[in-house]
Amino acid sequence: MLARFHRALDGLQHRFANPRLGVHDTDRHLARLRSALSDHQNHPRYRDVKPLARQILDLAGELDRLRPMPDRIVHGDPKINNMLFDPISGAGRALVDLDTVGMMPLPLELGDAFRSWCNPAGEDDRSGEFSVELFAAGLEGYVSVAAGWLTADELVEVIPAVRTIITELAARFCADALYEDYFGWDPERFSSRSEHNQVRAAGQLALARSLEGRRLELERVVNRVLVSI
By the 8 A CB rule, do 110 and 161 touch? Predict the structure, then answer.
C-alpha cells in the first residue's frame, strides 16, 4: 500500500504548504536532548531520565552517517496507526493523516515505516523488539510494487535509516520526558507525561539494540531483495 502511494504521487508537480523542515534533523533532536539534560536538572524525574538519555546519546554516536539521496514525495508519517486495513481480508485500504505529505529522501520514509511496522510491542512499551520476519514481509511486499522505481542505493540505505529514525525518536521522547511540552500521554496508564515519554524512549532504545543484534539477518533480507529491483 505504501509503495502504491509513492508510485501514484511520483512526478506530481506541487508546492507543499507544510514542508516540515527539520523533521528528521537528527543532530537537532540530539541537541535538544542535551539541552533538556542541562536545563531541567531540577525536574522530579531527572535522576531516572538522565541515565537513559546518556545511553541514547552513546547510541547516537555509533550511527552510520546516511548518504545523500534525492527527495521524493512521501507520506511523512507512515506508522502502522496511519494505515487502514480491511477487517475481513486484512488487505491495506488507505493511508490517513495526510498533513505530513511532502518531500523527503525515501530511505527516511522507509526507515520510519519499518521502525513502526517491525515492533509488535508498539511505542508505549519499554520492551521494543525488532522483528526480522515482519521486516522481510514488509520489504518484499514494498519491493514487489516499487521494483523498477526504487533504486538499489535507496534500498541499501534502509537499515541505516531505520536505526537512525529509532535513535532520533528515542531522543525526542527522552527530551520530552523533561520538557513535557510536545507528545500527548495516556493518564490511564501512566502517572505523568514524563513517565509515559520515559517508557517510550526506553522502548525505542530497546528496539535499536534489538535491531543491531539482528543486523546480519536484516542485511541478508536486503541482499535477497536487491536482485528483484
Answer: yes
Q: Which residues contact 97 (CB under 8 A, 6 or more apart)?
A: 77, 82
CATH of the domain at 173: 3.90.1200.10
Q: Residue 14: CB partners within 8 Å, gap ≥ 6? A: 73
Contact 158, 139 (CB under 8 A): yes
* DSSP character string of 57-124: HHHHTTPPPPPP--EEEE-S---GGGEEE-TTT--EEEE--GGG-EEEEHHHHHHHHHHHHT-TT-TT
d(CA 167, CA 108): 13
Best CA proximity match to 4, nearest among 100, 105, 119, 147: 147
Is 148 within 8 Å of 158 (Cβ atoms)? no
Is 18 inside a domain boundary? no
Name the residue type at position 135: F
> What is the reported pTM?
0.93
Residue-level pLDDT at 228: 85
pLDDT, tens digit (0-9, with 9 covering 90-100), for 106-157: 999 999 999 999 999 999 999 999 999 999 999 999 999 999 999 999 999 9
- Residue 142 belongs to a domain: yes
